C-alpha cells in the first residue's frame, strides 16, 4: 500500500473493464479519488464506485471519448469540479483488431491510431497543462505494450500506435522533468483480460502463448494494477521516461531460454 496516494485525484480512461478497471479499483483501495472514464459500456461501473467507496476512496464516473479534445477536457473539468484538482493521469483506453497489413483499411488504421496514440497525446497534453497551471508536480502514465518493441504481424496499426506511445512518453518526460512532472509507460505482456478471453479459453492457444513467456503463465490484471500504483506513488519519485514491462519476461527473447541458439 502507498499512503501518499490517499486523497490524490486520478483519471483512468477506459476504466469500465479490463486493465483500466483493475487499475481504478486498486487506486481506489489506496484511498485515491478516482475518475472512472467510460465511452459507451457502463455495465458494472456503479458497482466499481461502491467498491472504491467501501475501501475508503472516492469515485465518480464520466462518459467521454478519450480520443477527442472535448472528451478529454470534460474529464479534466470533472476532476477539478468534484475533487479540486488532478494529480495522476492514466491513459489506458485502447483497442486492437487482427487484419493482414495489406488488407488493413484506412478506417481501421485511423480508429486504432486515434484512440491508442492521439487519445494519449490529448490526455497527456491536457493533464500536463492543468498541472502546470496549478503548480502540481503530477504524474502521467501511458498504457503501452510489449509491442512497442516486439513486431506483431496482422496488428501493424496497434504496434505502430504503441511504438508512438514509447517515443511520446520519453519526449514528454524529458520536456517536463524540470517542472517535476513525471511521465512513464507500462508495457503489459499477455494478460487475462476480456479482450483475450476467447483466445485463452482455447487450451492450445493458451499453451502457445505461455510458451512465449519465460515465467510460464499469463498475467492477471491485478499485476498490472500493482505496477500502476507504484508508478503513481512517491515510491517511484526518481523514475521518469521509462516503459516498465510487466510481461513475465516476454521481451527477453524467450526462444533463447535454456541456452538455445
TrEMBL record:
Alphabetized UniProt keyword annotations: Oxidoreductase
GO molecular function, one term: glucose 1-dehydrogenase (NADP+) activity
SUPFAM superfamilies the UniProt entry points to: NAD(P)-binding Rossmann-fold domains
Subunit structure: Homotetramer.
Family: Belongs to the short-chain dehydrogenases/reductases (SDR) family.
Principal EC category: oxidoreductase
E.C. number(s) listed in UniProt: 1.1.1.47
PROSITE patterns named in the record: ADH_SHORT
Name of a matching Pfam family: adh_short_C2
Protein name: glucose 1-dehydrogenase [NAD(P)(+)]
Coiled-coil residues: none
Matching Gene3D superfamilies: NAD(P)-binding Rossmann-like Domain
InterPro entries tied to this protein: NAD(P)-bd_dom_sf, Sc_DH/Rdtase_CS, SDR_fam
Annotated catalysed reactions: D-glucose + NAD(+) = D-glucono-1,5-lactone + NADH + H(+); D-glucose + NADP(+) = D-glucono-1,5-lactone + NADPH + H(+)
Amino acid at each position: 500500500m502507498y499512503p501518499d496516494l490517499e486523497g490524490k485525484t486520478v483519471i483512468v480512461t477506459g476504466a469500465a473493464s479490463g486493465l483500466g478497471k483493475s487499475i481504478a479499483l486498486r487506486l481506489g483501495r489506496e484511498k485515491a479519488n478516482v475518475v472512472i472514464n467510460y465511452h459507451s459500456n457502463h455495465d458494472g461501473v456503479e458497482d466499481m464506485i461502491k467498491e472504491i467507496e467501501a475501501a475508503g476512496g472516492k469515485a465518480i464516473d464520466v462518459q467521454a471519448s478519450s480520443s477527442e479534445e472535448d472528451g478529454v477536457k470534460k474529464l479534466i473539468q470533472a476532476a477539478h469540479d468534484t475533487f479540486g484538482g488532478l494529480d495522476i493521469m492514466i491513459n489506458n483506453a485502447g483497442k486492437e483488431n487482427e487484419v493482414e497489413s495489406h488488407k488493413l483499411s484506412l478506417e481501421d488504421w485511423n480508429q486504432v491510431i486515434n484512440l491508442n496514440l492521439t487519445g494519449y497525446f490529448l490526455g497527456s497534453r491536457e493533464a500536463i497543462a492543468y498541472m502546470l497551471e496549478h503548480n502540481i508536480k503530477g504524474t502521467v502514465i501511458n498504457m503501452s505494450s510489449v509491442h512497442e518493441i516486439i513486431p506483431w504481424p496482422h496488428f501493424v496499426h496497434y504496434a505502430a500506435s504503441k511504438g508512438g506511445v514509447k517515443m511520446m512518453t520519453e519526449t514528454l518526460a524529458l520536456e517536463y522533468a524540470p517542472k517535476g512532472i513525471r511521465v512513464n509507460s507500462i508495457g503489459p505482456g499477455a494478460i487475462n483480460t476480456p479482450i483475450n478471453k476467447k483466445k485463452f479459453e482455447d487450451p492450445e492457444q493458451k499453451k502457445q502463448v505461455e510458451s512465449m513467456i519465460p515465467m510460464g503463465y499469463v498475467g492477471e490484471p491485478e499485476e498490472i494494477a500493482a505496477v500502476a500504483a507504484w508508478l503513481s506513488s512517491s515510491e517511484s519519485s526518481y523514475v521518469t521516461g521509462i516503459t516498465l514491462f510487466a510481461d513475465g519476461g516476454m521481451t527477453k527473447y524467450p526462444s533463447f531460454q535454456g541456452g538455445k541458439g
